[in-house]
Design brief:
Layout lengths: L10 H5 L10 E2 L3 E3 L2 E7 L7 E4 H7 L8 H12 L5 H13 L20 E3 L3 E5 L4 H12 L5 H20 L1 H11 L3 H29 L2 E10 L2 E9 L7 H28 L5 H19 L8 H10 L4 H14 L1 H5 L3 H34 L1
Antiparallel strand pairs: 1-3, 2-3, 3-4, 5-6, 6-7, 7-8
Helix pairs in contact: 5-8, 6-9, 7-10, 8-9, 8-10, 9-10, 9-11, 12-14
Length: 376
């Protein structure tokens, strides 16, 4: 009848629905980001990741197409002591729908952009894509190496590499002398740095192979240069969504593992030569510089792999900048800093102090080493 006010939407109609996320949508474990605990959600088909809070994640993770919104709402009320009104559900479903994350929803439109070529940048600084399909390339390498990517193979190799580094540490003064000599031999030095560059390339491929092994993807393999330096790179996607911290840390640490593995044949060659042999001295430089390349990369400082591993192990996002932010708050606004959860206060303060001490120790060790060689 004209003039009769419209009846409000019946919430039972909405709450009886059984919405589901699209297959393949990625949900991360809980991450500490500043004072908040967040989860990342990503559409693997080119969508950008976005953060949601613990309560939103609780709801989104239960959109399985089996449970009704009413059933999920009961679980939410039991967990958080609060029932959701219809507008809350509508906002959540609208958010997911506009991002194309719900099953049956049209995919989120993406702007039409011309396909990027293999080159990006200038002759002085840029990147070049080396393979057309990086994920397929690393997939083939993974299938080839899969028999070796098992604990009975990797654990003995890790033990052998640890023993190698202990042995080299006992020979450090001689290795340092030989490396100093190597820096005065231009031809040998070029050969050593060529091998170290190859080790860097293997480092990047190892990240990609490990990612494929644990369920991640690789979007690009290429060459990045900033003259006179040029290095390979391997862009690993979706590692934040792997099932366990161990898988995430294994992907981040695979590069250093490959660097140390690369040195093992040269260690055997070095050990077979007599002291003072010129080839042994060249190999000493390779072993020392190669070990430093791998071990430095395991330091928990950005942008090194050790920093990435620490973030995965602690389930913390943006550890270094958030630690700096928290430290500034402690100095300027102690009330705001005190509002951080206890775990956040402990981690951020510990990392800020620990990383500063580590940098000081590294600079002191470098200065001591340079002084020793200049004096002797």
């Amino acid at each position: 009848m004209s003039g009769t006010p419209a009846r409000p939407a019946d919430p039972a109609g909405l709450l009886s629905h059984r919405p589901a996320l699209r297959p393949g949508i990625l949900l991360s474990p809980a991450l500490l980001h500043g004072p908040a605990t967040v989860h990342l959600i990503k559409d693997p088909d080119g969508g950008a990741a976005f953060e949601v809070g613990v309560k939103e994640y609780f709801l989104i993770a239960r959109l399985d197409g089996v449970r009704t919104l009413a059933e999920i709402g009961e679980e939410y009320a039991d967990a958080f002591g609060k029932r959701l009104a219809e507008p809350h559900w509508r906002r959540l479903l609208q958010l997911l729908g506009t991002r194309g994350l719900l099953a049956g929803a049209p995919p989120r439109p993406t702007p039409d952009t011309p396909a990027a070529g293999p080159f990006n940048g200038t002759l002085l600084r840029g990147t070049m894509r080396l393979v057309a399909d990086a994920d397929a390339t690393t997939g083939r390498l993974h299938r080839l190496l899969r028999p070796a990517l098992r604990a009975p193979v990797l654990l003995p190799l890790a033990a052998l590499m640890a023993a190698t580094e202990v042995l080299l540490a006992t020979e450090l003064p001689q290795l340092a002398d030989d490396t100093w000599w190597l820096f005065h031999q231009p031809v040998a030095l070029v050969a050593v740095f060529t091998l170290l560059w190859l080790s860097t390339a293997l480092h990047e491929l190892a990240h990609g192979i490990a990612a494929r092994h644990y369920g991640g993807t690789v979007s690009e393999i290429g060459l990045r240069w900033r003259l006179p330096m040029a290095v390979m790179y391997c862009t690993v996607d979706n590692y934040r969504y792997l099932r366990t911290r161990w898988h995430q840390c294994a992907v981040a640490g695979a590069g250093a593992f490959a660097n140390l593995l690369f040195l093992l044949p040269f260690l055997a060659w070095w050990a077979a030569l007599a002291d003072g042999d010129p080839t042994r001295r060249v190999l000493s430089g390779l072993l020392l510089l190669g070990s430093a390349q791998a071990l430095v990369n395991l330091l928990p400082l950005p942008p090194l792999d050790g920093y990435t591993m620490l973030g995965h192990a602690l389930r913390v996002s943006h550890l270094a900048p958030e630690s700096g932010r928290y430290l500034r708050l402690r100095l300027s606004d102690r009330q705001a800093a005190a509002a951080y959860p206890r775990r956040a206060r402990t981690l951020y303060l510990g990392y800020a102090v620990g990383s500063a001490l580590l940098v000081v120790l590294l600079l002191a060790a470098l200065a001591t080493g340079l002084y020793f060689h200049l004096v002797h």
